[in-house]
Membrane associated rhomboid family serine protease
Amino acid sequence: MVPASVGFQCPECVRAGQAGARAPKSGGLRAAGRRWGPVTLVLIGINVAVYVATAISAATVGSNPLTRNYVSPLGAALVQFPPAVDAGEWWRMITAAFLHLGPFHLALNMLALLVFGSELERALGRWRYLAVYGVSILGGAAAVQLFTVSAVAGASTAIWGLMGAFGVLMLAQRQDLRGIVTLVALNVVISVVIPGISLVGHIGGFVAGALAMAVLVLTKRTRSLQIAGTAVLAVALVVVALTVPTVVVL
């Protein structure tokens, strides 16, 4: 036996294990995709690209590209503003989830997406994970349309949806929920304490992500039912967002 970082190792066992293992492939984007999840990396790339584009747009009109990109011509066309959505600019409900209001806002959301998204993508597979992400965006957007008239932007509605999905998945697998409950509670406190954060959008994304995961869990034996269930949920959220008038302004 030889000392190891954790306990001891048997040299013969190690050699046997290495003989049966595949040699690691070269690094690069493919290796990063296997480690973090290709869909998650693509989503991060889109968010970063949108931020760069809005920052350039802000600079062209003399606005600070680091802190005022969302009032640039491009940023103003992407942000979710409920009255504008009611007037027919429905795409804002989706584009706002890829728009960030500064480098700190972007960095925090992308770090959370990298961690949560990669884990959920490995658990669900690419298409189911993307379905949960999309439904979470729509859930957050619908909540904003129903309960606020303020302009909002950011990927946090989808990230909260991933947390909701994690909770349902852990519940279905009978895992300890204390970690995810603590994390959600902490984020609720942060959303309340820090001004300018849309708690309504976060809760909407969380509920939608949890519902999407519940559909996937309940229909796990039939892929066609999973597709139909998540599609119905997505359409229902869009219909609610575009047809139901604002209930309460928060």
